[in-house]
Design goal:
With 402 residues, the protein is α/β, with parallel strands linked by helices.
């Protein structure tokens, strides 16, 4: 484990603090048109490992400068997706502090409002009345109770983006108490960069079908987490095929809330004139996984979620598939991740944004997330911040009960 001098660590209280009124000039967002992916959408790409990209030089900008500027937002660590006749999206000029205020209007796990809307994390025997679970065998395999909040101290959420090849993250990822992975993201052959430990593997409808026939290379999970009605239909089959593994079903209301916060964040930023998205902007698989980790873990670190424009970085770390921008707004995804990191909801472990806790998770502050959401709640959350946004034509919809 690399030695990290204590003097190089900054107190959590000094991180992610928005500029007070009049303390400094507003920092504009960079106007760009984005096409690169952030949260990788998976497809039937080649299963052969992609040649590992050379490590990218790390941007060692000062933390203060990084926190008050989101230049390059709207870019993912990926090869250029298929082109369109017009840009899918634009991230426009705006004020970082006002954009970050949108995050304060969202609802996050482990808060009273979230618990009212999504009382369960996973479907369990105490609450197994979901109509789409028709298999008695599957019901019998459900956990007796819901998963407990804060059951893990540190968690790594590992995306499938090519940014994973930028550094040998593997040993740092494996030192987390729990590791989340997605769909077909393999570990075999990539241990140096992505680690070998998997605690939860989230699979969407498409990849549940794939998973029911073949494990991802190197996979050895403690829990397979399904979400979506189509995935639930294969739950009984997975229980039969992989009796040594726990097959969990993310509670529908939990998944719905995670996607809802994503959409409401986009709507608020669009009303503020910060983001323009043309066409669909489906929430990616990573959203459910991030919110699940926020519920189960004290401190969350995100790896493999690109937020900077770099066409030399592949879309996936494990194949040559290219991203498709038709269904997702990759620029908004990048901006949202930066804003959440700005508010200290999680640590963003990608070049130019990573800190010491990304390499040494044991040094992270387990109370950082709780302080962040409590600060938002004490300030009134979206209701208190809403007045400053309404002048720009925005009322944070996340504060309204669905």
């Amino acid at each position: 484990m690399p030695h990290v001098p204590e003097a190089s660590l900054r107190p959590a209280e000094q991180r992610a603090q928005p500029a007070s009124k009049g303390s400094q000039a507003a920092v504009p967002l960079l106007s760009i048109a984005s096409t690169d992916p952030v949260m990788p959408a998976l497809s039937k790409g080649s299963s052969r490992p992609r040649p590992r990209a050379a490590a990218q030089p790390q941007d060692r900008r000062g933390e203060r400068a990084e926190q008050t500027s989101i230049k390059g937002a709207g870019t993912g660590a990926a090869a250029a997706p298929r082109t369109r006749s017009r840009p899918k999206e634009k991230v426009l000029d705006g004020d970082m502090a006002k954009a970050a205020a949108v995050v304060d209007g969202l609802v996050f796990p482990k808060t009273a409002k979230w618990r009212r809307r999504a009382p369960r994390i996973v479907v369990n025997k105490k609450d197994s009345e979901d109509k789409f679970i028709k298999s008695k065998a599957y019901v019998s395999s459900l956990p007796a109770e819901d998963l407990r909040e804060n059951r893990h101290k540190t968690c790594a959420v590992v995306g499938n983006g090519g940014a994973m090849l930028s550094k040998p993250w593997g040993s740092s990822i494996d030192r987390h108490d729990a590791v989340f992975r997605f769909n077909d993201g393999p570990t075999e052959g990539f241990e140096r960069h992505v680690g070998s430990k998997t605690t939860y593997r989230l699979t969407n409808n498409k990849w549940t079908h794939f998973y029911s026939k073949k494990h991802p290379r190197g996979a050895s999970e403690e829990n397979i987490v399904l979400f979506g009605h189509g995935s639930a239909g294969l739950g009984a089959h997975l229980v039969h095929e992989f009796p040594g593994e726990s097959v969990l079903l993310l509670a529908p209301e939990f998944a719905s809330q995670a996607r809802g916060q994503y959409k409401q964040g986009q709507a608020a930023l669009s009303s503020m004139g910060v983001v323009e998205v043309h066409g669909r902007n489906s929430a990616p698989t990573g959203i459910e996984g991030i919110f699940m980790a926020l519920a189960l873990c004290q401190r969350v670190h995100l790896y493999g979620f690109g937020v900077e424009r770099d066409p030399s970085v592949p879309y996936h770390y494990h194949d040559k598939v290219r991203g498709v921008e038709a269904a997702h707004s990759f620029g908004f995804q990048a901006l949202l991740l930066k804003l959440l990191k700005f508010r200290d909801i999680f640590a963003l472990c990608v070049p130019g944004h990573d800190t010491e806790e990304c390499l040494s998770p044991e040094l992270s502050d387990p109370s950082a997330y709780d302080r962040a959401v409590k600060s938002m709640e004490s300030a009134g959350g979206g209701a208190a911040r809403g007045s400053s946004l309404r002048g720009r034509g925005t009322t944070p919809a996340a504060d309204d009960e669905p």
